[in-house]
Amino acid sequence: MTAFFEGIQYLFVNILFAPLDFLRRLELITWFGANTINWIFMIICSVAIVYWIKQLRIFDDAGTENQDTTAHSFLK
């Protein structure tokens, strides 16, 4: 049974966390390089939010959105 848990430890520590160890070492060299992934995620989220708001405005201007309080059965 010990070998099973040591196998799980090896999987997580040596394989799955290897990219995080790389980022930890990279942070000592360059902060911007280590946080590139965060910047990419922030850009993707910003673009998604702008697209979402644009779509909401399109439906609101067209008047196709049902704003009746009884649109859902659980609001009755």
UniProtKB/TrEMBL annotation:
The chain crosses the membrane at residues 28-53. One of its GO terms (molecular function) is glycosyltransferase activity. InterPro entries: DUF6341. Pfam families: DUF6341. It comes from the Bacteria. Keywords: Glycosyltransferase, Membrane, Transferase, Transmembrane, Transmembrane helix. This is Uracil phosphoribosyltransferase. It comes from Flavobacterium cheongpyeongense. The lineage of its organism: Bacteria, Pseudomonadati, Bacteroidota, Flavobacteriia, Flavobacteriales.
